[in-house]
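Morning run. Coffee first, then this:
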Amino acid sequence: MMKFISETGLGFFFEEGDQFLEDVAKKAAELEGKVDEVLNSKEDIQDVTKLALYQPVFYCDDSTSMRYGTRARDQIRLVRRVARISTMLVPDDCGTGLQFINKKHALGDNLKATEVEQIMESVKPNGVTMIGTNLERKILKPLVYNVINRGDKLPRPVLVSCITDGCASHENESEFRDTIVRCLDFLKAHNYPPTTVRFQISQIGNDKAAEGFLNQLRDDPVLKDVLFCTTQRLDEEYKKLNENEQDLERWLLKTLMGPILSLGAQSKHA
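And here it is:
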């Protein structure tokens, strides 16, 4: 674990003997012996251990278009599962964050997977897709900017996983991109490593505008080291693998690991 931390610049947050790391390592050792847990291979445990280093935040689309078909239901099922995977090895007093594009919702960053599901079940899709504006207002400000501005240190790096079924609306077309760039600039100005906040964006549904939006982000050279764009449509792949629990869980883990594995690849070429 310390090798990965050193190679990826996360030593800013973690030192040898850190209690958080010891708790994660203990849970990882216990996971290896759990025959009823799908993600119990050596490779799976290594990935889940790396994932545990990050504070996960799921940023969900609750715009009106999420009413179409099974999009809202599919998103709930997906996020419930990835919330569980993200928090498998963290100490009991740590959890995941959850936020929505539209719903007025206080950002909880210590939720269990069951709590995530309950909150999502209560949300009725309604509104537009100000995905960039509210990424800054509802996630980055309370979780990153306000903490650093008041002189506190972020306890862990942050992984923001965004899910959307459309492209940005009712804001500048480049607002999502610009929000991420401003975050990088803020971190640099406050002497935090650029790896402090990682972003991932994934598509749900078959909207062509959403596909074009993600392709534009994927091709942006400024974002290549900080934003990971998932290539598969989440709901489509989920339904394809739903009958095979092992394949489904491993695909979800690999999807979550996308931004982290790309970070490891960058460090090898740095």
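The first helix runs from residue 2 to 7. Good start to the day.
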